[in-house]
Design goal:
With 298 residues, this protein is mostly helical. It is built from 14 helices and no strands.
Length: 298
């Protein structure tokens, strides 16, 4: 009987012992990785070719369109910067885009905080109002925006037209930013505010010292999602600004017309336009990922 009991215990011990996991060949994961690398190479290939061509001479490009810059020529950049008026276009792009992003993000965080943290009458209607801004593209209102900016420029001649473009850009990014920031403010624990109020902190201090730092990844994300389309926008600067106030995308059209046969200098101008976006992505990649994946592990 004892031997039978021991046999049963031994069998249960063997049965309960975990089996080593079987190694499975993850064909799907390997195929996905290969496809992603192929897509990355296909997306980076035009940028690499453009950068190489900007460092070559016109004679080298004519003899060998696809080649390495064995003897780099940096005069293409200086010529595009001065003769192509890229210095003015670059400054206009930086001033307009950065100002619009700062203004739009500031307005959005002030609107998203009460929508995400307080309950009041009309909150649903106000949220729907901001949500409607995501459904209607801003270019549908191009004609009334043009007449509005034109009338404001005539009535206030001392105000630069770039200021009105900054206002248009800032307003266009508010709906998306409010939608994202409201969700982030809503998921923050209420105990933080209660503890701060017990310590004697006011509403403004709670907002500035506690809430805003905790949604910093979201602020970075919405700022970048505003910056990229505004930096690349061609339509509104062409419609609302004069020639000497153009940004880089609109300035490229004149540059292409004047230097149509100078392919190396055209490549240099394209590199000048693209570099800020590449640097921005390299610097803020962690913030973008943190902002997009925040709260997914809860």
């Amino acid at each position: 009987m004892t031997s039978g009991t021991l046999t049963v215990n031994e069998r249960s011990t063997v049965a309960a012992r975990p089996r080593p996991p079987r190694r499975r060949i993850q064909v799907g994961g390997a195929a996905s990785a290969i496809l992603l690398w192929v897509y990355a190479l296909a997306a980076l290939a035009p940028l690499i070719i453009m950068a190489f061509n900007s460092l070559r001479t016109e004679k080298d490009l004519a003899n060998q369109p696809l080649g390495l810059p064995l003897h780099p020529v940096f005069e293409n950049y200086s010529h595009a910067w001065s003769a192509g008026n890229f210095s003015t276009y670059f400054v206009n792009s930086v001033v307009i885009t950065v100002s619009a992003v700062v203004l739009g993000t500031g307005v959005s965080v002030l609107a998203a905080y009460p929508l995400g943290r307080y309950r009041f009458r009309g909150r649903g209607a106000l949220s729907s109002y901001f949500l409607a801004g995501l459904m209607l593209p801003i270019r549908l209102g191009a004609v009334p925006v043009f007449y509005l900016v034109n009338s404001l420029t005539q009535s206030l001649p001392g105000v630069d037209a770039r200021f009105w473009l900054i206002c248009v850009y800032a307003g266009s990014g508010v709906p998306f930013s409010v939608f994202v920031l409201t969700a982030f403010f809503r998921q923050l624990p209420m105990e933080l505010e209660e503890a701060a109020r017990i310590d004697g902190a006011g509403e403004l201090r709670i907002f500035a010292r506690i809430m805003v730092p905790m949604v910093r990844p979201a602020l970075t994300t919405v700022a970048l999602f505003q910056f990229i389309p505004l930096w690349n926008d061609f339509f509104f600067p062409l419609v609302l600004l004069k020639d000497d106030q153009w940004t880089l995308p609109t300035g490229l059209t004149r540059f292409f017309g004047e230097f149509e046969a100078a392919h190396a200098q055209l490549s240099a101008g394209l590199v000048i336009t693209t570099i800020p976006l590449v640097v921005l992505f390299l610097v803020a990649t962690k913030q973008i990922v943190a902002g997009l994946t925040a709260g997914m592990s809860k």
